């Protein structure tokens, strides 16, 4: 929550990317809509997450060719055990099961 200190160091043991093509397309379309809506928003109306500047290589992926982040996008990560990750990768990501520890 707010006011809590962030951990000083994390060690990623392994990272896997799972991408559901249809969900990714929906996300990309909505990201474009948000960027368009933000053009008329007053400056400073959105707050960047505390983690936004911790890993330049990752936050750079949220920027466009001009170095801006028009949709105020941030990458967020979560952990799971290896069996859970492999289960998700083997059955695709089911949005209805998100957060249910069902992987």
Summarize the structure.
This protein has helices spanning 21-38, 56-59, 82-91. With 103 residues, the chain is mostly helical.
Explain what you see.
This protein is mainly α and 103 residues long. 31% of the residues lie in helices and 0% in strands. The protein is built from three helices and no strands. The protein has helices at 21-38, 56-59, 82-91. The chain is globular.
The percent range for strand residues is: under 5%
Q: What's the rounded overall pLDDT mean?
A: 76
- Tally of extended strands? 0
| Individual helix count | 3
Helical residues, percent: 25-40%
> What is the general shape?
globular
Please report the distance between the alpha carbons of the first and last residues.
26 Å
Topology diagram in text:
Blueprint: H1 21-38, H2 56-59, H3 82-91
Structural features:
0% strand, mainly alpha, 3 helices, globular, 103 residues
């Amino acid at each position: 929550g707010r006011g809590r200190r962030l951990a000083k160091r994390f060690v990623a043991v392994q990272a896997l990317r799972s991408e559901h093509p249809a969900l990714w397309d929906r996300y990309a379309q909505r990201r474009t809509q948000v960027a368009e809506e933000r053009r008329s928003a007053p400056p400073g109306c959105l707050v960047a997450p505390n983690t936004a500047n911790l890993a330049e290589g990752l936050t750079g992926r949220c920027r466009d060719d001009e170095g801006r982040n028009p949709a105020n996008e941030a990458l967020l990560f979560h952990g799971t055990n290896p069996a859970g990750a492999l289960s998700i990768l083997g059955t695709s990501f089911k949005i209805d099961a998100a957060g249910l520890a069902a992987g």
